[in-house]
Amino acid sequence: MTSRRRRLAAVGVPALVAGLLGLAGCGTAAAPEPAESLTVYAAASLAGPVSDLLAEYATDHPEVSVEPAVFDGSSTLVTQISEGAAPDVIVTANETTMADLTAAGLVDQPHVVATNSLVIAVPEGNPAGIASLTDLADVDTVLCAPQVPCGDAAATLLQLNQVEVDPLSLEQNVTAAAERVTSGAADAALVYATDVASREDQLDAIVPEHAEEVVNRYPAAALTTAGPAGAEFLELLGSARGTAVLADYGFGSR
Amino acid sequence: MSSPRPAREPGGRIPPVLLAPAVVAVALLTLPLLALLPRVDWAGAPQALTSPEALAAVSLSLRTGLVAVGCCLILGIPLALVLARAPGPVAAVLRVLVTLPLVLPPLVGGLALLYLFGRQGWLGQATVAVGISVPFTTAAVVLAQTFVALPFLVISLEGALRTAGGRYASVAATLGAGRWTVLRRITLPRAMPGLIAGTVLAFARAVGEFGATAMVAGNAPGRTQTIPMAIYTAFNGAGVSRDSALALAVLLVVVALVILIGLRDWRRREAW
């Protein structure tokens, strides 16, 4: 019995260690990584142009396995990368969020690839008759959370206009804020001009006063761990072609 | 559970005034699920479920759910055996630890996992040093699912082991059967209903897992975007279409119903 117990311990301890490691490895083992891959994390507002450019990149580089991009609020993406997510390229919707990654030494020098500004998004035809930011105080308005670039910009813009809004909800990314108006849950939202442009059959945009003074600059950077595909995609984003695709979606150039 | 069903109580024992809140309770539990149905575009449902994004989510959920249940079995059976045979105070402490993830909001579990396996976490620092990063990978989905599903398996199996008792096992041991033989031929077969019920519930819980996955695995299509994540994303205006999300939601309800009804019928046949 004692020998058996000892044998059990001899088997058990390494088995536990192997088991924990195996548990962590379960998923990674299931999907063997090809030689070269490209994963892009980008601000939610970039879903259209970045998807288009990724498709172009995939056509031009059949040897690279292009993963579906992750689009979410910039601060969410930055937190995920800080905690261990490892895409090749990150594009955020303002320089404040990117600064966290630069400071942590997780990304190479970022470069601004696009600009964007805020509009008031209302359902098509503007049923509530909203004309300016002051009207937002009287209707159900959705904003982005202040930590997210669109929320940061919204707070600055409201302050410039000396308007206070009691938001129905603070969303974690700009797509969600626009969606609240599209689905009829809210009467208005402060979102980027590009978000309304890509939903022009459902939303109308009202350009508020001082909007041109609150411009978000979108920096793009490769992670320090990125492969060559990351640098290539950054080059495409910053190229004349990249700028043209971004402009098609309503983004301004640097 | 082995005791015969009590005979039906004679009517009129419940104060009639309590019927109203009981009806409200049933309505509260069932009406929201029924409200899903008229919103589904039934003709388009097969197409909505087989869109590339929806298929990717279904496939990922199935694969990670199965691996998570495998991990639950490998870790949970030994834990349930220890729990069922441990002396009172030890078992009591262990049981609280095992039940904690069951009661805890999964979101908190996800945060805790992130702080253990994250870049700055205790284990994360060690794994990163050898070139392995778990968070925001498919492995993290499995980790989150295992974390929330394991208690279901352990509690269910432990209950069955206690009900089955250790008498047959002791007799077998005095007759000269080794520990492995007793475990394989007596203990586990006698606890099989609990093991199967626990396994099925663990799978259902793993496939439905959302909060912990969102925190530790994120929302990358094809990699960590499981069915619940895809549904959530769709209602934030991105990813799969709204129709796909509804169809997926109904699919999850149906799977849960099938599992519950299947378990009930099977338990009855096994005369639990």
> Could you describe the largest sheet of chain A, including whether it forms a barrel?
9 strands, mixed
In the CATH hierarchy, the third-tier topology of the domain at 60-224 in chain B is known as MetI-like fold
Gross morphology of chain A: globular
Low-confidence stretches of chain A: 1-18, 24-33
Oligomerization state: heterodimer
Mean pLDDT figure of chain A: 86
CATH class division of the largest domain in chain A: Alpha Beta
Please identify the structural class of chain A as seen in this structure: alpha/beta
Count of spatially separate domains of chain A = 2
Radius of gyration of chain B: 22 Å
Beta-strand content bin of chain A: 15-25%
CATH topology call of the largest domain in chain A: D-Maltodextrin-Binding Protein, domain 2
What are the defining features of this structure?
heterodimer; A: 254 residues; alpha/beta; D-Maltodextrin-Binding Protein, domain 2; 2 domains; two-stranded parallel ribbon; 9 helices; B: mainly alpha; MetI-like fold; 13 helices
